Amino acid sequence: MEKRNMTLKNNFFLIIFLVSIVGCKNKETEFIEITEGRSMNPSEPRIGIKITSSNNSYLCTEIILDGRRTEKYKYFKNTKPVNFNELKKQVLENFDTNIKPDYIKANDATYYQLTYHLSSKKYKSKFIESDLTYLQSQLLLKIMNLSKLKNYKEIGTHDFSKELLEEKLPAPPSL
Fold first, then answer.
1. Domain count, the chain
2. Could you tell me where the DSSP H helices lie in the chain?
3. 122 within some domain
4. What CATH number is associated with residue 123?
5. Ramachandran assignment for 71, one of left (phi > 0), alpha (psi -120 to 50 degrees), beta (any other)
6. Which of 39, 55, 80, 107 has the fewest CB atoms within 10 Å of its CB?
7. Which residue range forms the structural domain that includes residue 112?
8. Within a domain: residue 47?
9. pTM value?
10. In a domain, 76, yes or no
11. CA-to-CA distance for 50 and 77, rounded, in angstroms?
12. At what angle are helices 134-144 and 84-94 packed, to 10 degrees?
């Protein structure tokens, strides 16, 4: 009888533990992320900025050696909080639908990708700056300027969308 009670107690604690783990995983962190692809200047690094609902901002910047891209990154966390709710409101007001350019994309333009998970809405769009309205362009500039702040501290790594950050140039045609 005592052995049976012990088994029931162990099973009860196991069930409580499993329910608590599952409950913790259901809360998804809201975020806004902008990544910048290759520019025409090979010594200019590609960057990514991510702002989370906990008012943290993260930066990744490509390591440039001898004026060449390495496709390796350094990651940073801002030591000062960012007003996530203000940016969230502006992003939802200005980027509620995918950006649809009405012309052929330029091969020599710098591409950006906006990805966000806000209020259970998921969004991802790739564009060049000329695809944007004036207000969208100003908001893009505001978020990209977060990379120029001086209060970032280097961290090991952080997750960023890889499409533009790891984009490779196509192989040249054979002669």
1. 1
2. 2-25, 84-94, 134-144
3. yes
4. 3.30.1560
5. left
6. 107
7. 31-155
8. yes
9. 0.76
10. yes
11. 10
12. 150
